[in-house]
Fold these 2 entries.
Entry 1:
Amino acid sequence: MNVCIVGTGYVGLTTAAVLAELGHQVYCVDQNHDKIEQLNRGYIPIYEPNLKEIIEKNRDRLTFTNGLDLGIKHASIVIICVGTPSLTDGRTDLTYIQSAIDHLALHIDSYKTIIIKSTVPPGTTEQLYIQLLEKGVPNHLFSIVANPEFLREGSAIFDMLHADKIVIGLRPDDQRSLPIMKSLYAGISCPYVITSLTGAEMIKYASNAFLATKISFINEMARICDAVGANIHDVAKGIGYDPRIGPHFLQAGLGYGGSCFPKDVKSLEQVAHSQKITPHLLQAVQLINDSQVNLYIQKLQQAVNHLSDQTIAVLGIAFKPNTDDTRHSPAEHLIRKLSEAGCIVRAYDPKAKLDSSHQPNVTQTDTLQEAVEGADILIIATDWQEFQQLNWREIKARMNGPIVLDARNCLRRQDIEQWGLQYIGVGCG
Ligand SMILES: NC(=O)c1ccc[n+]([C@@H]2O[C@H](COP(=O)([O-])OP(=O)(O)OC[C@H]3O[C@@H](n4cnc5c(N)ncnc54)[C@H](O)[C@@H]3O)[C@@H](O)[C@H]2O)c1
Ligand SMILES: O=c1ccn([C@@H]2O[C@H](COP(=O)(O)OP(=O)(O)O[C@H]3O[C@H](CO)[C@@H](O)[C@H](O)[C@H]3O)[C@@H](O)[C@H]2O)c(=O)[nH]1
């Protein structure tokens, strides 16, 4: 099939690579000229495991262009993957979706299946359908489908090729789209959840809200564990064996970040408010998450006399491992707070780059060793695999002070303490 992808960011590029791998001809459109120019030069603008390899392997099935008209001309399927960031009040900014739909309306002259893969608030896709009609696109020339994406950054290609489900939201009168969607994803073996447009949109929000809730739940349990002297690792393991709870997403730490959970939980909260519902649970989830970094700054303040005198090595800048994405990264938030507290911060990350707006007392080092050299405190802020395999004898020799804050609970206490270092974890002393 010929497919046009509008928005060549994390989701668009991954979708393009996977669909090309499945044998489709894919036209990738983005309004960002630099991005398209880079892609045409063979440079992949994001770090995502296996993405570069899969794009190179399928290069003859991929076209990168700024021209939506070219993509639309060739493709009968148009997948919208543009960003849907937060507005300042927490509602979703639909400007990019709106502009993609406006452009699309100008170019449709044969039947298209328009797939909304971007995460949008319930009711949006139906509104987009109405807008296309109002812009003069006759209803026999298009169908619109809500098909949210559930990939995780850092394992995006794997997640798409091995999806646990494909969610498809259809309009009640749409008899055409389901077989098209099944052909599009032929080669991915998983259950289909067929629902209404709003049902599909809600599944995406509920999924992210539930996962964020699990994280805030375990972080709250970690606070209580610290107070009563229990170990959160044991608690997570103990509850995780119960199949009704499950072992996943129970890793206590600095809280959730990234381009999805913070904005989607906020957006769902706003959707509830707009329906005169007070979303008590969503509010609590965010309250816990938003206070997690401060809590660990306070713990450091209690551990040293004057935090402002400290030189701190922060290992990790990305919001999670295996990505260079720093959007809403708790690690970056922590670095900013330490900088505001007057500390000298030396940050290191294998892939992510620090935002240039940081203060002069914050530097990013090229190597982990440079970050650690002479540090009073070392903090693990992102649980990259390479931080879990450190030589702590060597680290101890390089450091000036004894404190290691494992803010992602990814180290073994005894590995640290055996060299005379002081271990602080999350919910485990
Ligand atoms: N990042 C993820 O892990 C993830 C996972 C699932 C769902 N989502 C959802 O998918 C959507 C995209 O997320 P992302 O992280 O890929 O965003 P992104 O910011 O990385 O990419 C969006 C791209 O769209 C382009 N764009 C914006 N308006 C355009 C237009 N009118 N025409 C052409 N291109 C346009 C931008 O230039 C950018 O390259 C969001 O709704 C997000 O919530 C993201
Ligand atoms: O037990 C856990 C699991 C995750 N996190 C943190 O939660 C955030 C999000 O992690 P993750 O969900 O792995 O990454 P994302 O790439 O943001 O993926 C989420 O957001 C995407 C965008 O909507 C969805 O498609 C995915 O299904 C959903 O997992 C990161 O800061 C993690 O460090 C924890 O603190 N503890």
Entry 2:
Amino acid sequence: MSPHPALVVSSLTKAYRSRRVVDDVSFSAAAGEITAVLGPNGAGKTTTIECCAGLRTPDSGHIEVLGLDRAARANAAELRSRVGVMVQEGGLPQAPTAGAVLAHVAKLHGRPGAHVALAESLGLTDRLATAVRRLSGGERQRVAVGCAMIGEPDLLFLDEPSSGVDPHSRRDLWQLLAGVRDRGASIVVTTHFMDEAEHLADRIVVIDEGRIVANGTVAELTAGTLVTLDADLEGDVVAELAAAVGATTVAGARPTLEIAASQAEVLHRLTGALMERGFGRVALEVRPRSLENVFLSITRTGAGA
Ligand SMILES: Nc1ncnc2c1ncn2[C@@H]1O[C@H](COP(=O)(O)OP(=O)(O)OP(=O)(O)O)[C@@H](O)[C@H]1O
């Protein structure tokens, strides 16, 4: 295993014209791990990933990839051979067949013929003779993932690899990516699927409006409890209750509180507060926070809710 982190991003900034879309972003991705980068549309994920992959030039900041300075020309050739990249929507040529594209990229990496087994694991064997432009959206995505990983890179950047991919193929993709990690490679992947991040990622980085708003393991980020009160309570009563137990309220059909504490601690606090206010008969539904709950509460309009 490499002694270096796969990726270290320090104070990365990038603006388009005068609009700063990546603003002082710092995070790292450990070697041999899958790091998921999450964020709402337009948050700056693609811009960040493309700066790290060498496809865009940052305005300021420092990026180290596999222990090498990304900006140093002397490292460009080594990084090209050791880093695989899938840009958003694949970036594939449209006229050649899927098989020709994969075979070409395999040859470029000195691995002629490697595409046959890879196409099999991507469920593409019977699509190899089809022109890329005639493939379905999900099939094209899988060809693009195949092109990024066929050189057996030490670090793989994947920008929304499962967008448009059906649930069966998505699970096959997860298995494939877990296999890439198991052979010691590192993956930095963006996704809008919270279940994908929960299932795959060792670490999660959340970007919102160009800034990092969360960074941790799934367990760290989802620590906490949601409680739904099965009662028709007035908004100000719920708000007062939330303040009394140190919770925030969550929008929904029924009054729901989010509390950064264990289920036992939450029940202890809440039952006391309910009894004191004469709501001793209210039924409670208690569950752990999901990554989606966390994402919604820390990004955009949810921030600080
Ligand atoms: N080449 C460009 N010129 C001008 N603005 C750009 C350019 N590329 C991206 N942007 C803008 O920068 C912001 C961040 O875009 P980016 O693609 O990095 O976001 P994202 O988090 O990947 O979004 P999505 O989830 O929708 O793919 C967006 O508002 C986008 O419109």
